[in-house]
Design brief:
The complex is a heterodimer of chains A (125) and B (383). Chain A has 125 residues and is mostly beta strands. Chain A has 1 helix and 8 strands, in the order H-E-E-E-E-E-E-E-E. Chain B has one domain (3-120, 206-382): Thiolase/Chalcone synthase (Peroxisomal Thiolase, Chain A, domain 1, 3-Layer(aba) Sandwich). In chain B, the strands form 2 sheets. Chain B has a 9-stranded mixed sheet, with helices on both faces. Chain B contains 12 helices and 11 strands. The relative contact order of chain B is 0.20. The two termini of chain B are 16 Å apart. With 383 residues, chain B is of the alpha/beta class. The chains are: A mainly beta (125), B alpha/beta (383). The interface between A and B is medium-sized, with 25 and 26 residues. The complex binds zinc ion. The site of zinc ion has 8 residues of chain A, from loops. Residues 25, 27-28, 30, 39, 41-42, 44 of chain A line the site of zinc ion.
Amino acid sequence: MPENQGPDKTFRDGLAEGQINLQQCNDCKKFIFFPRVLCPHCKGRSLTWHPASGGGIVHTTTTVRRKPERGGDYNVCMVELAEGVRMMSRVDEISPAEVTIGLPVTAFVGEIDGVPAVLCKPVED
Amino acid sequence: MGDQLRGKSAIVGVGHAGFGEAPGFSAYDIMAQSALAALDDAGLKLSDVDGLFCTMMEDAMPVLMAAEYLGIQPRYVDGTMTGGSSFVNYLTSATLALQAGLCDVALICYGSNQRTASGRLVTASKLPPYEGLYNPRYPISAYAMAAARHMYEYGTTREQLADVAVAARAWAQHNPEAFERGALTREDVLGARMVGDPLTTRDCCLVTDGGGAIVMVRADRARDFPKAPVYVLGAAAASSHRQISQMQDFTVTAARDSGKRAFAMAGVTPGDIDVVELYDAFTINTILFLEDLGFCAKGEGGGFVADGRIAPGGALPVNTNGGGLSCVHPGMYGIFTVIEAARQIRGDAPGLQQDNVELALAHGNGGVLSSQVTAILGAASTV
Ligand SMILES: [Zn+2]
């Protein structure tokens, strides 16, 4: 992946191609999110991009209540990816009330208002 | 703030204005009315103020706008913006500036007209770039997710959350300055409109107009003013994140750190505190802060607040003015924790004045549980 552009651009370029990419610190080996130019854990400056596995767990969740005529209720959650990073996301394919803490999910690249976004769906049995 | 600053500064005036609704008044009008009230309380004039500590929801440079509006040219200004905790944080920077001789009269002030201007909670910040897309309701979705996690890990119940709101209302019912004074039951809270599970409208702070101000001087001249001085015995800040997705543990706030250092500086423990004033933007806040500040163990906050323990007549007086849940919440509430704590120590609280208050804790919260600032205030007998 290109090294001569900012990390936010690299992340968004990945999403545009349907790929969730995460930075891993070459020193402490931890994955980080959000994208940045240093490791917030060990302060290392050497980071490498890797595709995320897509595995994740709902760490916490809420239903944003909204009137039906304005689109109805929707989910906002924190997903913890298998790589150990946490990000805001939304669980699709089930109703907001069915999204629970600890739910295993698969993260994928979907769209919100035409913009590529990391979304989640329940892991299929 | 180090031990050498313990008791070196004092609050000699407090004031407020525009509580509830102040139609037609701008945020700066309300800020200025509050400043004048605090200066009157201290027996000082605007021309005496040479240190200004202020931030507002409006503008990129609110401290300059405030100085301009007040017609003063302060020698020292601090407009550090850490959200609603800013004003508790200013107790530290004002103490430092006073002690260093950078100013002699410090004015901390704030005002907002958010209720009459927009009718909804105004926040000064844009949504963070990796969160805005998901359209969280800011800031409630963040606090709702913290509450959900606390319920999941510790079995905290919606009834216990509701009891925080019920206690706040019970205090407010005795406070003529409070905006919401009607009866409120646990069932009322649980049955109110759900806005972000597990929080209903009654788990959320008010949206009001209002402003507050505090006047501080060095301790060596604090007895030269009309009202009994209230000393800053300890103050400490801690920050853990800005975006809620970056909060390491959704059930533990940086108040654990700010509280520990503030108590150490003051040389007192939670058991010594007579009244507790916490930034209760949402009912979960009170539970988290009581735990993190050491009033009860982690995970036990739900049980601690239940059944009137923090209500009038309970074992621990918390948010004796009614708090942000029932007294006033003009966008940022932090300054009112200090004002109520100071008035309880002086003995002129507007609502239920507690007996023999010598030590009070004021705790400010900023962002989405991001910035935590704890202050321990004391009467002259504690210095
Ligand atoms: Zn590292």
